Amino acid sequence: MNCDNQEISLMAKEYDLLCLLAANKGRVLTYDQIYQKIWKEEAFGNANNAIACHVHNLREKVGRLLPEGCFVIRCVREVGYCFEADSECIATT
Questions:
Q1: Which of 15, 52, 64, 81 is most buried when burial is the number of CB atoms within 10 A of its CB?
Q2: pLDDT tens digits for range 39-88
């Protein structure tokens, strides 16, 4: 993936998660919705932790390359995540 003309390496689940969140920009996706779409199975006991780990990695990898505020994955406590990135800041190939 290219971000601000810099190549970044994402794991498959990170890339899938980024695509899912970006496709639903501005909409809160529940942990269950995210898990079912990315892992293709019902969420289990520690599914939220798996999602949180991948979100953390995305924030680290993508967020450090962009100006502050361009890339925001907002946590909606005990519900899920919402992607609020400025699409002009992000270019993917």
A1: 81
A2: 998 878 888 999 999 999 999 998 787 777 777 899 999 999 999 866 66
Query: How far apart are the C-alpha atoms of 27 and 15, rounded to whole Å?
Result: 18
User: How far is it, in rounded angstroms, from Cα 47 to Cα 9?
Assistant: 23
> Are the C-beta atoms of residues 31 and 47 closer than 8 Å to each other?
yes
Domain span including residue 16: 2-89
* Total domains in the fold of the chain: 1
Closest CA to 84 of 92, 73, 68: 73
Strand-by-strand arrangement of the 80-83 sheet: 28-30, 80-83, 73-76
Q: Which two tokens stand for residue 21?
A: 């969140």
Instruction: Provide the CATH number for the domain around residue 8.
Output: 1.10.10.10
